[in-house]
Write a structure and sequence with these properties.
With 457 residues, the protein is of the alpha+beta class. The protein has 14 helices and 18 strands. The protein binds zinc ion.
Length: 457
């Protein structure tokens, strides 16, 4: 009965919630631009005042960069930490906006009303879904829904330089039973999802040197080793004919896909033709026998991100190059160890070097995959709550990219994260005319109310 009252309260007060979001969207909190330092402070102040107004102990917390906002509430039940970011991307090219980016307005579109402004979807609209759910809960119950820590960052769009030091200095205060991160999207237009696995990344640049200077391919071609040929052969050796990666030990720590997850993923009916069709492709090119969603969520990859050697300008030059280089990256899953994979890659390249060739390596980044332990009861409770709100059942999904905050929560604070977001692919985040669907905002608020209700059992 009380959940129904909270949901009713959300429905009848949607206009007021949209007005509050409008106020927040007017603040030009572009974190990367020093000219907007005061605006970032103002956005943090606005959030502190708003959270204090509904009963949180809320404080703006200084960092060497833009401040964090930390707010807490007390109570019984599981302790959740909610993360979002109040900073936004720059707005240029300004001339491509139909209206000024910091003058939010509700617009009717063929697919329903949207609120259009920089930050509408990424991430002010999304973080306010949780705040509004707490506000409605407080209005109906008189108390906030259990022990909650709200953690808002103001540097997410500029590389989060203060995040790790702040988390390390304030680890006990920021540690909860589970983290909720609202900065991702729906799986499909109206299909909710909880991201429970994110791939890690290892990058490496390699340069193979043969002759000590560029040579004339007429004078030296045939007798001199060509490092471009050596590099091409090594890179080609990294995959076998079935698309499997051939580095020894590469698949150590790659877990099999559990049956229940396989069933959920099959149920999503992922349309790989549409996904690939959007970039002029048609055929999945991963390992033979894997589902297309496995290829992007739960299988590791090896990709060549760049390769260069010899003469690449206009016209033609019959050069036999001295050097050949490539950038190679690996997306990691499960328990794959970034350091061991880097070492295996070095060995793989070195073992294939012919006489007279040398190699230099330059490392780029190393982060392991994040795999959440979905046996924490909060995961199934949240999935059930989302399935109650949306027309289709929610699923645990993967994310091919890397979202560093989820990794930090795990490695620095020992917390699993649920990434639950309501953005849509056409929200134009980071681009002109960013928008957030009013339906995403409304159902997002209702979703959090349902999740908080389930968590508080
Ligand atoms: Zn974001």
């Amino acid at each position: 009965m009380s959940l129904a009252s909270v949901l009713d309260h959300i429905d009848t007060n949607l206009d007021a919630a949209l007005n509050r979001l409008t106020d927040l969207l007017k603040i030009q909190s572009i974190s990367t631009d020093p000219a907007h330092k005061d605006d970032c402070e103002a956005a943090a102040d606005w959030l502190v005042a708003d959270l204090a107004g509904i009963g949180f102990q809320a404080k703006k917390r200084p960092t060497p960069g833009h401040p964090m906002v930390v707010a807490t509430s007390e109570g019984a039940g599981p302790h959740v930490l909610f993360y979002g970011h109040y900073d936004v991307q720059p707005v240029d090219p300004l001339e491509l906006w139909d209206r000024p980016p910091f003058e939010p307005r509700i617009e009717e579109t063929p697919t329903g009303p949207v609120i259009r402004a920089r930050g509408a979807s990424d991430d002010k609209g999304q973080l306010m879904t949780f705040v509004e759910a707490c506000r409605a809960w407080k209005a109906v119950h008189g108390t906030l829904p259990g022990p909650i820590t709200i953690f808002f960052e103001g540097e997410e769009e500029s590389g989060s330089p203060s995040l790790v030091p702040f988390m390390e200095e304030n680890a006990p205060e920021l540690t909860a039973d589970i983290a909720l991160i609202c900065d991702t999207g729906l799986f499909a237009d109206r299909v909710p999802a909880i991201v429970t696995q994110l791939r890690g990344l290892v990058g490496e640049e390699i340069t193979i040197t043969g002759p000590d200077k560029d040579l004339h391919s007429g004078m030296f071609g045939g007798i001199a080793i060509n490092p471009a040929r050596v590099l091409a052969r090594i890179l080609a050796d990294l995959h076998d004919d079935t698309g499997r990666i051939t580095l020894p030990g590469f698949y150590d720590g790659v877990p099999p896909l559990p049956d229940d997850l396989r069933a959920q993923w099959e149920g999503l009916n992922f349309d790989h033709s549409a996904f690939l069709g959007g970039v002029g492709l048609s055929a999945p090119a991963g390992e033979a026998g894997k589902m297309p969603v496995e290829m992007i969520w739960s299988e590791p990859t090896c990709e060549i991100n760049g390769m260069w050697s010899g003469y690449t300008g206009a016209g033609f030059k019959t050069v036999l190059p001295s050097k050949a280089s490539a950038k190679v990256s690996f997306r990691l899953v499960g328990q794959q160890d970034p350091d061991r994979i880097r070492a295996a890659f070095h060995d793989f390249v070195t073992a294939r070097l012919p006489e007279d060739c040398t190699v230099e390596f330059a490392p780029h980044g190393a982060s392991p995959a994040s795999q959440m332990s979905t046996d924490h009861p909060a995961f199934e409770q949240a999935r059930a709550a989302l399935s109650d709100e949306w027309p289709d059942a929610a699923a645990f999904v993967g994310c091919g990219g890397s979202i560093p905050i989820a990794g930090y929560f795990k490695t620095l604070l020992g917390m699993d994260s649920m990434l639950i977001g309501f953005a849509k692919d056409d929200d134009q985040i980071h681009s002109p005319n960013e928008k957030y669907d009013v339906e995403s905002f409304h159902k997002g608020i209702r979703s959090w109310a349902r999740i908080l209700d389930r968590l508080n059992g």
